[in-house]
C-alpha cells in the first residue's frame, strides 16, 4: 500500500513535492481553517449580519450551484481549495510571497472600494446604516492590516510562518467578509 503522504506532482509549479514534510501539514491545516471562516461568513444566520455578512466568494456559488441543504455546505471548501491552488510554494515551506499575491491584493482592494461605492445605497436600504458602516469599517481595517504587512514583507523575504499567516489572512478576508451581501436577498 502506498504511503498516505508520499511524493505528489504539483500541477501549478510542475515539481514533485513531498507531502510528509511539516510545511505541507501546516499549510493543509491552515487551508482547512478557511472552511471555518467561510462557514461563519455564510451559514451562522439566515440573513446578512455583521458576524455573518454573506461574502460573495461563497454566497454566489451557494445560490447558483446548490439548491439547498446539505449540498450548499460544500461551498465552504472553495476558499480552502483556492488557497492551496494559489499557494503551492507554502507546501514546500517557502517564505517568499509571490508577486501574483501582491497583485491579487491590490486588485481586490480596488474592486472592494468599487464594490462598496456602487452598492452602498443598497446596503443602507436593505441591511441598514449600522450594518453597512460596520462591515465597511471591518473591510477597511482588514485591508489596512494586509497593506501594512505586505509592505513590510516586500523588502525582505519573510519567514515561512509569517508568509503563511499573511496569505491566510488574505483568503480569510475573502471567505468571511470581503464583498459582503449588500442589497435585497433572493
Describe this protein with a few key phrases.
186 residues; mainly alpha; two-stranded antiparallel sheet; single chain; 2 strands
Percent in strands: under 5%
What order do the SSEs take from the amino end to the carboxyl end, as H and E? EEHHHHHHH
Give the % helix: 55-70%
Structural class: mainly alpha
Mean model confidence by pLDDT: 89
Domains (count):
1
What is the straight-line distance between the termini?
A: 49 Å
Largest sheet: 2 strands, antiparallel
Number of strands: 2
Shape: globular
Task: Return Rg in Å.
Answer: 18 Å
Number of helices: 7
Low-confidence stretches: 1-6
Order the strands across the largest sheet as they lie in space.
Answer: 1-2
Structure in words:
The structure is a single chain. The chain is mostly helical and 186 residues long. It has one domain. It has 7 helices and 2 strands; from the N terminus they run E-E-H-H-H-H-H-H-H. It has helices at 22-43, 56-65, 78-86, 88-91, 99-126, 129-155, 160-176, and strands at 7-9, 16-18. Strands 1-2 form a two-stranded antiparallel sheet. A hairpin with a 6-residue loop joins strand 1 and strand 2. Helix 1 packs parallel to helix 7, helix 3 runs antiparallel to helix 7 (160-176) and helix 5 packs antiparallel against helix 6 (129-155).
Q: Can you summarize this structure?
A:
This protein has 186 residues and is mainly alpha-helical. The protein is built from 7 helices and 2 strands.
Amino acid at each position: 500500500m502506498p504511503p498516505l503522504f508520499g511524493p505528489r506532482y504539483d500541477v501549478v509549479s510542475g515539481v514533485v513535492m513531498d507531502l510528509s514534510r511539516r510545511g505541507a501539514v501546516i499549510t493543509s491545516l491552515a487551508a482547512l481553517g478557511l472552511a471555518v471562516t467561510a462557514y461563519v461568513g455564510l451559514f451562522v444566520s439566515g440573513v446578512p449580519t455583521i458576524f455573518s455578512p454573506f461574502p460573495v466568494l461563497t454566497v454566489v456559488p451557494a445560490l447558483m450551484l446548490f439548491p439547498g441543504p446539505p449540498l450548499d455546505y460544500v461551498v465552504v471548501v472553495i476558499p480552502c481549495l483556492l488557497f492551496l491552488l494559489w499557494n503551492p510554494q507554502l507546501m514546500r515551506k517557502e517564505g517568499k510571497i509571490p508577486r501574483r499575491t501582491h497583485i491579487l491584493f491590490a486588485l481586490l482592494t480596488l474592486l472592494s472600494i468599487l464594490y462598496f461605492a456602487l452598492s452602498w445605497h443598497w446596503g443602507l436600504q436593505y441591511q441598514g446604516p449600522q450594518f453597512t458602516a460596520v462591515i465597511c469599517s471591518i473591510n477597511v481595517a482588514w485591508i489596512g492590516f494586509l497593506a501594512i504587512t505586505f509592505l513590510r514583507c516586500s523588502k525582505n523575504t519573510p519567514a515561512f510562518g509569517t508568509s503563511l499567516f499573511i496569505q491566510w489572512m488574505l483568503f480569510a478576508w475573502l471567505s468571511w467578509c470581503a464583498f459582503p451581501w449588500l442589497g435585497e436577498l433572493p
